[in-house]
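Honest question from a wet-lab person: if I give you the sequences of every part of a complex, can you actually get the arrangement of the whole thing, not just the pieces? Trying it with mine:
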Amino acid sequence: RKEVEQDPGPFNVPEGATVAFNCTYSNSASQSFFWYRQDCRKEPKLLMSVYSSGNEDGRFTAQLNRASQYISLLIRDSKLSDSATYLCVVNFDNDYKLSFGAGTTVTVRA
Amino acid sequence: NAGVTQTPKFQVLKTGQSMTLQCAQDMNHNSMYWYRQDPGMGLRLIYYSASEGTTDKGEVPNGYNVSRLNKREFSLRLESAAPSQTSVYFCASSEAFEGGLDTQYFGPGTRLTVL
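Yes, you can. This is the full assembly:
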């Protein structure tokens, strides 16, 4: 079983729509959670950290559910520029390493 | 402030050839990492260096060696390239703190093809 699992998608949505997707992780001792964004043939970049109480950054909302061991990302009012692959990233047990999901692809169409 | 730089950007090797991928960061981070990314697999950690003078194996270290040359530079060497090592390689750096890791910053990647 993979440590971090994501629905690969793709999620094809029209501009202005809301899209949401989850990521599950296997290690209950996980401490830190992140969403990274990766554009085609580019390097991953941090989108946002995920805090226990949930957090928003503009149109993006991240939630953490420790009991069910998943995190979620919701994008409101989708823009064409939101088209990308979103990587779920988990830091297990204060390790120096991060574990990456394979990514969820979102395509926003005009 | 260049962040994380990698060279080369592209490389084609024949089976059995060797090469070194170079990585440097100018953010004064203690920790540096090498990942490979294959379709449908996500990023997999090859080796990492938690601090200058230390290196540790990640998830997929076989066929690779690393050198933490100084705080800024972390190189990845393929001694005898194999077609299975065809991939995109990313270097990253971050700061570690009590309780976890800070943001990882990635280089632009090296696209390696082994024939």
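Two things worth pointing out. Residues 15 and 102 of chain A are 25 Å apart (CA to CA). The interface with chain B takes residues 4, 8, 31-32, 34, 41-46, 49, 87, 91, 94, 96-98, 100-103 of chain A (CB under 8 Å).
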